[in-house]
Specification:
Number of helices: 8
Largest sheet: 5 strands, parallel
Mean pLDDT: 91
Strand content: 5-15%
Radius of gyration: 17 Å
Number of strands: 7
Order of helices and strands: EHEHHHEHEHEEHEH
Bound molecules: adenosine monophosphate
Length: about 220
Amino acid sequence: MNIVLLGPPGAGKGSLAQLLKEEHSLLHISTGDLLREEMKKESDLGKQAKSYVEKGELVPDELVTQLLANKLKTAPKQAGYLLDGYPRTRAQAESLDALLKEIERPVQLALYLDCDLDLIIRRITGRRVAPKSGRVYHIVNRPPKREGFCDESGEPLIQRPDDNEETVRKRMAVYLENTLPIVQYYEDQGILRKMDGAKESEDLQQELVELIDEQARLN
Ligand code: AMP
């Protein structure tokens, strides 16, 4: 199954992606993670992206689309994919369709996780991540077994520099203006399914299994 995850920052896309990729052996591609890797390597692209990411603004479409195209084209064919954080603009949604047509792997399901701003701020400011394993924790809602360290890899957890309240408000404004309209784009294609992002990802799991089965029957 080829899936696109949509929703505001902090709606739980990353946590849901974690569950989905474990249950359905999907290839999880997060453009936020890809950009952070490039920034860490200090590649040309990483250097260009850095100031946008730090301010909570969108990285220009051409840069992110190039990064995603490289990843998708070299991805193993047998696995379905799970796109997290892309597309974020109408232009990206159109580029994605063109790219996926080229590699004959169209999006089959767009999952939209909705969530309100207060909850998003509480979630994001308490979020801690393990950069290597990709696991996501929360200091109150989903604490690791040993404070400050990942349960799986044992690596120290970090707080993303863009996970502060001011940047979250900025990211939310950017989301409302640029990304929310894409929900309609997938609705028009008849592949959009909505889920309640206020629920914890474990509670969404059963709902998700049913949605995926239902969509698989339709495809
Ligand atoms: P995320 O990890 O998805 O919250 O993304 C973190 C940051 O990376 C965003 O606030 C943007 O600055 C940048 N970013 C990630 N994906 C995209 C995208 N598809 N288009 C533009 N910028 C992106």
